[in-house]
Amino acid sequence: MKLTGREKYELFGEGVITVILLLLLNLSVFILIDSALKSNPALSNAVFMVKNSITIGGVQIWSYQKIFILIMFLADAGVLYWRLERRYKQMQLRHIIAELHYIANGHFDHRIPFELSGDHQRVVDSVNSLVDSVISSMEEERALKQSKDDLITNVSHDLRTPLTSIIGYLRLIEDRQFKNEDDILKYTHTAYLKSIQMKSLVEDLFEYTKVSQSNPHLTINTINVDSMLQQLAASFELEAKQKHFVITSQCTPKDLEITGDAEKIGRVFNNLITNALKYGNGGKNIFLSAKQINDTVIFEVANDGEKVPAEALGKLFDRFYRVEGSRSKATGGTGLGLAIAQSIVEMHNGTIEAHSNDKRTSFVIQLPLHQPVSKDLP
User: Fold this and answer.
1) In what helix (H) or strand (E) does residue 355 lie, and over which residues does it extend?
2) What distance in Å separates the CA atoms of residue 203 and residue 197, rounded to the nearest whole number?
3) Per-position b or e across 205-233, b if 16+ CB within 10 A of its CB
4) Collapsing DSSP states into helix, strand and coil, what is residue 58?
5) In CA terms, which of 86, 151, 205, 280 is 20 to 30 Å from 199?
6) How far is CA 155 from CA 58, 160, 162, in A?
7) Is the CB of residue 317 less than 8 Å from the CB of residue 352?
8) DSSP 3-state assignment of 3?
9) Alpha-helical runs (H) found in 224-336
10) Cis ω on the peptide bond leading into residue 253 (within 30° of 0)?
11) 162, 194 in Cβ contact below 8 A?
């Protein structure tokens, strides 16, 4: 810490005043001792005898005056150091407070740059850590607010588009702008399809909100992994056949079991398989696999469809993101499926990643083998 010119003069003045006071104190003590020796012959004789006994080669090496001066010098040096050190620490604290006020005035990118020692350095480290924590909380709060704003904007857009179509077609019927019953059926069918899209969005939004709560609840069950994968393959068999896909499953070992919320984990694989069916253009196979490595289970949902662009891989788990780069409903997706899957996996203390190359696109999930019996997640 660099002292200002004023502080240096202040420190120098403190030293001068302390030295003057100590000299006056020393003189007073010396006079008192000298008076005591002169007024007390027995004490004076005792000091004289001790003095004569401590000689080397007949040379006297000390006197009580010399001893007094030595003791006073050491005591004075200690007192002077203590006074200057205390004043210097007060100056350090003053600088720390000034820096803290500077940060509190809105300069949150500033940190106290001092390298001190002892308790004051711990104070500096604590203040800097506190500021870092506050900044991090503020950034998280801003990100959360932006996230909420984006959520409202995206939901409003996705609800407005089909709702506008529904109102438009119903208005055609209301205004009798149709030629025959076939036109009415066409208009109502289109309105029905749009209402299904709205229902799908609302359901996905509700599910995402539910799994993204600050304290979601998991109902822990024991899950036979091989049976789960086979049931998933069977449940999507008809839809896969219509889109010319074949779904296969593999589990190693066959009797592999994990604990977790069966309903929510099932939702993860439902979303991933649905995603593969919608976006695995040109593919013929969907592969479901699971294998145990120590206390971890590695799941993979893969398809041999066309490659996902590299710039899109990092955004796949963002809410409302679609690889096709538009907010159209051509694929029928809401853009929430993968975000829901990620939230559920994280609730189970796991991770999910996306990989894609010219041969296959895969989602790899890592889950611990066992979950706590009862879990209210932070």
Assistant:
1) strand 351-356
2) 10
3) bebbeebbeeebebebeebbbbebbbebb
4) coil
5) 280
6) 106, 8, 12
7) yes
8) coil
9) 225-235, 237-242, 262-279, 310-313
10) yes
11) yes
pLDDT in tens, the chain (378 residues): 677 788 788 888 888 998 999 889 888 887 887 787 678 777 666 655 555 555 555 555 556 666 777 888 899 899 998 888 888 888 888 888 888 888 888 888 888 887 777 787 888 888 888 888 888 888 888 877 877 777 777 777 778 888 888 999 899 888 888 888 888 898 899 889 888 888 878 877 777 777 766 566 788 889 999 999 999 999 999 989 988 899 999 999 999 999 998 888 998 998 899 888 888 888 899 999 999 999 999 999 999 888 888 777 777 877 665 555 444 444 455 667 888 888 889 888 999 999 888 888 999 999 999 887 554 443
Three-state secondary structure call for residue 48: helix
* Residue-range domains of the chain with CATH: 5-114 (no CATH), 143-211 (1.10.287.130), 217-376 (3.30.565.10)
Rg (CA), the chain: 41
Residue with structure tokens 């001066």?
A: 69
DSSP per-residue codes, 315-350: TTTSTT--TTSS---TT---S-HHHHHHHHHHHTT-
Report DSSP letters for 188-232, one per residue: HHHHHHHHHHHHHHHHHHHHHHHHTSSS-EEE-EEEEHHHHHHHH
Q: How far from each other are the two terminal CA atoms of the chain, in whole angstroms?
A: 42
Distance (Å, rounded) from C-alpha 230 to C-alpha 240?
14
Q: Are 92 and 113 in contact (CB under 8 A)?
A: no
